[in-house]
C-alpha cells in the first residue's frame, strides 16, 4: 500500500479533539472506510502510529473491525449527548468497547535517526486489535472523565453529525470546524439578510 499525494484528496479530518471522536467523523459526509488505503491514511493521520510506519499488512478485515468499533463508540457517545432510556444495545456496545480496550496499544520505542536525534517507531508492525485497543482505551477515558464528557458537543451545523470536545475558553465553540460548518452558517446568514433587504 502506497501512501502518497492521493492521501490529501481523501480530506480526512482530525479536528474532533479525540481519536475516538475522529473515528466517528469518518462516516461524514460519506463512508471513508471503504478502502484499506484510506484506512491506512486515517491510522497515520490520527496519530495511532508514527508517520512512516509500514502498513502494507492492512487488509479488508480491518475495515470491518474499525467500522464495528466506530458503531459501538458512536452509540455510547450519542447516548451521553441526548440521555434517553438506554437501549439493550447500549450495554452490548459498552461490553464490546471494554473488551477491545483490554488489548494494549502497539509498543513504541525510541531509536536514533539519521541525524542522531531520537525518533519514535513501533517495535513491530501494529496489529489491528492493538490499534482498536488504543481507540477503545481513548473512548473509555473520554466517557469516564467528567470534565471531558461535559465538553462533548454535537456540531450545530445543518445535519452535521460530528461530535467534538469543546476545550475552548468559555466553551463557546459551536461548530465542528469554523471553516466548514461555521462558514456555511455565515454564508446562510448573509443570504437571509440580503433576501430581507430586497423585500
Ligand atoms: Zn459541522
From TrEMBL:
> Domain Zinc finger CGNR, which positions?
152-193
Tell me any Pfam family this protein matches. Answer: ABATE
Q: Which InterPro entries match?
A: ABATE, ABATE_dom_sf, Znf_CGNR
The protein's matches in PANTHER family, at most eight in alphabetical order, are given as: BLL6575 PROTEIN
Put simply, this protein is called: ABATE domain-containing protein
